[in-house]
Amino acid sequence: FKGGDTCEYLLSSGRFLGEKVWQPHSCMMHKYKNSEAKNCLIDKHVVFIGDSRIRQLFYSFIKLINPQVKEEGIKHGNIPFEDKSASIKVDFLWYPEVNGSMRQRIKSWTESSVAKPHIIVVGAATWSIKIHNGSNEALAQYKINITSIAPLLEKLAISSDVYWVLQDPVYEDMLSESRKMITNEKIDAYNEAAVRILNSSSRNSKAKVKVFSVSKLIAQETIMKSADGLHLPESSRDTNAMILMNVYCNKIMKPIDGSCCQPQPPLTLIQKIAFCFFTLSIIGYLIISLIHRNNYRKNKSCTDLESGEEKKPAISTPNVSTLEMLLHCFCKLGLIMTYFYLCDRANLFMKENKFYTHSSFFIPIIYILVLGVFYTENTKETKVLNREQTDEWKGWMQLVILIYHISGASTFLPVYMHIRVLVAAYLFQTGYGHFSYFWIKGDFGVYRVCQVLFRLNFLVVVLCIVMDRPYQFYYFVPLVTVWFMIIYATLAVWPQIIQKKANGNCLWHFGLLLKLICLLTCIYFLSYSQGAFEKIFSFWPLSKCFELNGNVYEWWFRWKLDRYVVFHGMLFAFIYLALQKRQMISEGKGDPLFSNRVSNVLLFISIVSFLTYSIWASSCKNKTECNELHPSVSVVQILAFILIRNIPGYVRSVYSSFFAWFGRISLELFICQYHIWLAADTKGILVLIPGYPMFNVLVSTFIFVCVAHEISQITNDLAQIVVPKDNSTLLKRLLCIAGFFSGLHFFSAMQDQSRH
Questions:
Q1: For the chain, which terminus, N or C, has the lower number of CB atoms within 10 Å?
Q2: Same domain, residue pair 750 and 709
Q3: Domain boundary among 218, 237, 253
Q4: Averages of pLDDT over each 10 residues, the chain, 756 residues
């Protein structure tokens, strides 16, 4: 990668993904909405100068501001456009030839007393070829004229954005008789002259006329669809207008999915502090390692010169201290976070837009399913949703979600609805797992709570600091964190009802059901009272955690989307454990869960329910309407899957170790994908090896999985140090963590103040 100037690549190179999606080389292009275009161009004056091809580009450009505009202007005359609401002026000036008239118009803007346009788009040549019948004299005159105009354009480029649009190729077979002299050979000669002459006097200056040559590449692919062989089809000129909008607006609007022409964001104060911390950790670890190695060498066994026998050292190698383990973890984490930053904050690696095709999603799905079946082993226990089975479930779901994200399958509604069920299934497992633990163990101690919160949130907190992103940006972690606290509060508040107590008196079961009903009532109320929900989470310090773009709407939407599924998981755990306690289910190896008749009936109902949901999801027409139904019906497919997976004894007795391995690092995989597998905060794809898409995916995936596995180990190691079992030590650590977050809030406030 030659450097950070992605503007040059946006204006000069790229390729089509499919038929209509243009992918610039090395960067991502944002699709601007009308409101965004207006905000970018507010109080701006844009001028298009040239022939009918430039007029086409003019119309496509103003349609980005106002889609209702019709192409009704004078064909061979000036066309003004104004959007009074945003004070935007866009003018088309009819100058079909590069001649004295065009020079006079451009010269008038160079005078100090005249207001200069903010953007100037110029281009012309086909009329010169046509009028002079493609003569060499016309080309020579064109060179003279453009030589006289070039210094004026370069002078304007000091204060304005000036673009020279090279001539697109033509489809010669379709040209009318009056245009037959316009050949691609002639067009290439005119383009070559323009490129050679423009900027010739300012090669070492930053103020340059930007050559808009990408239109040629687009035309080469699409000119066959032209109506007359000369003018581009509408989709192609719309692409050119969008490129022009990206070149100018990306540095102003800074869209996440528009990495082209965006400068590298400056390091924030918190990022600088984090960089210093990780640097000191690496230096500290190296110093301690050198000291230990030096001590080891001194105590190393040496040979007795007289007897020729080896003497053993009196002192054994010391155990690894807590400080050394801590520095070792932060040393590795620092190197990993550097990779994160380089991938998704520095303009070092390329980024590309996603493009969905059915094959890009379903072929990898089939491939991983075959791998998963190949690695089948016997489970250690045959209980319903045993540890190996839940790890396997998390693993294959996570792999499917990863393929869904990298393939851009969210644009295909049936796939989107099924992925929503997988996310709901994760939350179902949250309800099931935490309820089962508290119900069976009765452990409501601070240690357990801190361990869970640390393991869930450690990586996200570090990424918030290093990547300068709000906590709510990684929405899934806040979601499972809040639901864990809700489950804990539901079961821990008086009266604490656990399995041991309920076994002594059946009335306690009704007490627990009453608690669950109260929880369901609260969920129902908050889901239909957005105002109450937003008030709760708008109080400081909750607002610092759950706000995104200045409000908590995104958090409310995410919470509401799967609002009942955690409750369903808790209820399922309660019913299952009650049946298990009363020995109403058979969990022996190879045994069906119920009697043969009941098992067959339940299995049939489960398969029908599973397929019914899939048919409904596949026939979904509107994402908003389907999202409204999703919270109530997603549990149908989840329960159907659990019964299909657990009723037959043989199926319950085996699991895929391949999927289970990924399941044990599923949280890290979900979070790490944001920055080191995908790019631009999941909006695009990271490109480590340009030009070889399959090889790039293999390499980036290998690194991504290794990093996720390493972070999982680091989190587990740090959890043992940061969250000790001793209550007095734990209290001290909690005070230190509170101090850390207070300092983080202080620096964040300073950072926000300096930005404003």
A1: C
A2: no
A3: 253
A4: 71 89 91 95 96 96 94 87 94 95 94 87 95 93 95 92 96 93 95 90 67 94 93 94 96 91 90 96 93 78 44 48 92 97 90 93 96 94 94 98 96 95 97 97 95 97 95 95 97 92 87 95 93 89 86 92 96 95 90 93 96 93 91 96 95 96 97 94 91 92 98 96 93 94 89 77
**CA of 186: how far to CAs of 128, 201, 470, 647, in Å?**
11, 25, 55, 75
**pLDDT recorded at residue 1:** 45
**What are the contacts of 87-91 at 24+ separation with CB within 8 A?**
87/42, 87/43, 88/38, 88/41, 88/42, 88/43, 88/44, 88/45, 88/46, 89/44, 89/45, 89/46, 90/45, 90/46, 90/47, 90/48, 90/58, 90/61, 90/62, 90/65, 91/45, 91/46, 91/47, 91/48
Is residue 736 domain-shared with residue 692, that is, in the same domain?
Answer: no
- Do 703 and 732 lie in one domain? The reply is no
Q: In sequence order, what DSSP letters do the residues of 259-312 get, joined into one string?
A: -TTPPPPPPPHHHHHHHHHHHHHHHHHHHHHHHHHHHHHHTS-EE-TTT-PEEP
Residue 507 corresponds to which amino acid? L
Going by their DSSP bridges, the two strands 350-353 and 684-687 should be labelled as: antiparallel
CB 162 within 8 A of CB 153: yes
Q: Is residue 629 located within the same domain as residue 734?
A: no
Domain end call among 253, 271, 305: 253
Q: What confidence score (pLDDT) does residue 4 get? A: 53
Given 45, 231, 418, 630, the catalytic residue: 231
How many helices and strands in the chain, by DSSP H and E?
29, 15
**Is residue 90 packed enough to be buried (19+ CB in 10 Å), middle (13-18) or exposed (0-12)?**
buried
User: How far is residue 165's CA from residue 359's CA, in Å, rounded to a whole number?
Assistant: 37
Q: Kindly write down the DSSP assignment for every residue of 623-669, as one continuous string.
A: HHHHHHHHHHHHHHHHHHHHHHHHSSHHHHTEEEHHHHHHHTTHHHH
530 and 484 in a single domain? The answer is yes
**How many domains does the chain contain in total?**
3
Which residue, among 290, 316, 569, 331, has the nearest Cα to 438 in the 3D structure? 569
How many Cα neighbours within 13 Å face the side chain of 597?
0
Please check whether residues 90 and 233 belong to one and the same domain: yes
201-207: long-range contacts, CB 8 A cutoff, minimum separation 24: 201/150, 201/151, 201/154, 202/154, 202/157, 205/154, 207/154, 207/157, 207/158
CA 697/CA 684 separation, integer angstroms: 13
Residues 666 and 746 in one domain: no
- 52 has catalytic annotation: yes
Task: Specify the pTM.
Answer: 0.91
Verify that 247 and 395 share a domain, yes or no.
Answer: no
Give the C-alpha separation, 582 to 601, whole Å: 22
Backbone angles phi, psi at 210, to 5 degrees: -80, 125
Pick the catalytic residue: 35, 159, 205, 228?
228
- From the list 12, 13, 52, 614, the catalytic residue is 52
Task: Tell me, letter by letter, the H, E, C secondary structure of 97-121.
Answer: CCCHHHHHHHHHHHCCCCCCCCEEE
pLDDT at 207: 59
**What's the CA gap between 343 and 350, in Å, rounded?**
9
Q: What is the pLDDT of residue 195?
A: 93
12 assigned to some structural domain: no
Question: Residue 23's domain is classified under what CATH number?
Answer: 3.40.50.1110
Q: Give the angle 294-297-299 at the CA atoms, nearest 5°.
A: 110
User: Which residues 6+ apart lie within 8 Å of 604 measured at CB?
Assistant: none
Q: Which domain holds residue 733?
A: 727-755
Buried/exposed 227-252: b ≥16 CB within 10 Å, e otherwise:
eebbbbbeebbbbbbbbbbbbbbbee
| CA dihedral for 91, 96, 99, 101, sign (positive or negative) | negative
pLDDT of residue 206: 59
Instruction: Determine how many CB atoms are found less than 10 A away from the CB of residue 703.
Output: 17
